[in-house]
Amino acid sequence: MPDVERVQPGDDIHVERGEISVNRYGPAARVNHWITAASLILLAVSGLALFYPSLFFLTGLFGGGQNTRALHPYFGVVLFISFFVFFLQLWRANLPTRTDVKWVSQINDVVAGREEKLPEVGKYNAGQKFIFWSMAFFILVLIVTGVMVWQAYFAPYVPIETQRIALLVHAISAVLIICVFILHVYAAIWTRGTLRAMTRGTVTGGWAFRHHRKWFRELASRRRVDPAE
Amino acid sequence: MMDSPKTAVSNPPVQPMDSNLGERDLVRRSATSDLPPPERQLTAVAKLIDVSKCIGCKACQSACVEWNDTHPAIGENVGVYTNPHDLTEDMFTLMRFSEWINPETDNLEWLIRKDGCMHCADPGCLKACPAPGAIVQYSNGIVDFIHENCIGCGYCVKGCPFNIPRISKADHRAYKCTLCSDRVAVGQGPACAKACPTQAIVFGTKDDMKKHADERIADLKSRGYANAGLYDPPGVGGTHVMYVLHHNDKPHIYSDLPDDPKISGVVQAWKGATKYVGLATMGVLAVGAALHGVFGKPNRVTAEDDEGAEKLVTNKTGTPEERV
């Protein structure tokens, strides 16, 4: 069982003309990721427009206030479904391990990029796991509180005091998930070579060796020897 | 220039006149922080509803429907006089009937309260509203919904301490009593006050209405209602619709009229601290990330990493690793 945290179906190493590339995400996972990303961005923009009067002009992007109000919850449903699919694929690989404790205790080395001092990590490091679980948590909270105040269908059946609390929790969770989103995007940019995993689906051997050596090692050891080689 | 009307009883003026209650009379505008101060101060108006004089005829409801040209659906009788059963987007005012047994006298008292927007001096609906200009407050105290700016989110429902606004399923906009702002603007009192056969509903300046209430309260006290009083709740800064209640010590017996209404603390936190702390948190993180991106050293794959990877793959076997 410990292997599941490191290797997932479809993960594989390919060597072509001396270049090592490692499959990290299949086409379906990448498409789903970008659906999640697009809906989260649309939700953030439309939500901020309804939260900050100074950003109300952003409702123009959705065709006015009425349309923004009508669309926002549907974006939320899309996000919830696409993330839910993600969740079922990834939750096992994101279960915490003892390595994560050590990794977090050396957070200074993480931020400084001194990865040689860190323990070898599997497919996901503690930071990525934190992003995963906080996204999962806040998306769940946001969909539940969001449905409670969905005026067109559900709000009339929810007591007003409950709706007030739901709105407050919804707003706080939205702020926090935007923070998690910023962390996620920034980490992917700061760690050069990461975006490739979500565009082409592969990473370089060097990237896998540097950031997820345990995962890479596992893939290398599993690699079948091609009889033609 | 015409000021606020002083009564609902008089007939409409016959000479042509300008209407007031325009943009320049606004003292508050939803989701707007830079509202210019009003050009003039209109005299504060109020509607006074004397519950002890109400006979429950519903003329006020009919007048409201007629003036506002709403079309409430024909309802179903479930054995109570309250009809329709609740305020709707087509019924801005509603006579609520409750039967209360006075524990002191063991008498059944039939309490009839005309429910509707209270026109709070500190309106929770306006505070909660995210759409600029969808809810406004005029200098005479009237709180009005400007429907073309309404986005139908229902936040006003959450903001209101009296559970008054209703969102139309047809056009997704919020509706409530306007205090007949379109009549008041041209010197007339609200339709309900005009129609009331017993003058249980009267209209005029807020000062006059308070004076009138004092007379009524003195009368009620002389008739044995020791707790008679004026309902002008300070928790919302006072209201521009006030009640004379024979049992002002317990407003809740009048079909759950709130004893001490105020804008919910949850709404205040949502529209206050959450906004500022949230903006600061997101801002610091975004700016921090941007600065780190510009000035910090990116985490790059090194030549050693590439070599290490190659070695691992060509060896085909990783070193056996420790279990975690």
What is the compact description of this entry?
Chain A: It is found in: Cell membrane. The complex is a heterodimer of chains A (229) and B (324). Chain A has helices at 27-51, 65-90, 98-105, 107-112, 126-148, 160-190, 196-199, 205-211, 213-222; strands spanning 12-16, 19-23, 202-204.
Provide a descriptive summary of the structure in words.
The complex is a heterodimer of chains A (229) and B (324). By secondary structure, chain A is mainly α. Chain A has helices spanning 27-51, 65-90, 98-105, 107-112, 126-148, 160-190, 196-199, 205-211, 213-222; strands spanning 12-16, 19-23, 202-204. In chain A, strand 1 and strand 2 form a beta hairpin. The longest helix of chain A is centred in the C-terminal third of the chain and has 31 residues, at 160-190. Chain A is elongated. Chain B contains nine helices and eleven strands. Chain B has a four-stranded mixed sheet with strand order 9-2-11-10. A three-stranded antiparallel sheet of chain B has the order 1-5-6, with no helix packed on it. In chain B, a hairpin with a 6-residue loop joins strand 7 and strand 8 (174-175). Chain B is elongated, with a radius of gyration of 29 Å. In chain B, 43% of the residues are buried. Chains A and B meet through helix 2, helix 6, helix 8 and helix 9 of A and helix 3, helix 7, helix 8 and helix 9 of B.
Annotation keywords:
heterodimer, A: 229 residues, mainly alpha, B: 324 residues, alpha+beta, Alpha-Beta Plaits, 2 domains, three-stranded antiparallel β-sheet, 11 strands, elongated
Distance from first to last alpha carbon of chain B = 84 Å
Question: In what range is the share of β-strand residues of chain A?
Answer: 5-15%
The class by helix and strand makeup of chain B works out as: alpha+beta
* Number of DSSP E strands of chain B: 11
State the major sheet of chain A: 3 strands, antiparallel
Quaternary organisation: heterodimer
* Distinct helical segment count of chain B: 9
Q: How many domain units of chain B?
A: 2
Q: Please identify the top-level CATH class of the largest domain in chain B.
A: Alpha Beta
pLDDT averaged residue by residue of chain A: 93
Give the class of chain A from helix and strand content and strand pairing.
mainly alpha
What is the residue-mean pLDDT of chain B, rounded to a whole number? 93
Helical percent range of chain A?
Answer: 55-70%
CATH topology of the largest domain in chain B: Alpha-Beta Plaits
What pair of chains forms the biggest interface?
Answer: A-B, 65 and 58 residues
Query: SSE order of chain B, as H and E?
Result: EEHEEHEEHEEHHEHEEHHH
Major pleated sheet of chain B: 4 strands, mixed
What letter string, H or E per element, gives the SSE order of chain A? EEHHHHHHHEHH
User: Beta fraction of the residues of chain B?
Assistant: 15-25%
Please report the total strand number of chain A as a whole number. Answer: 3
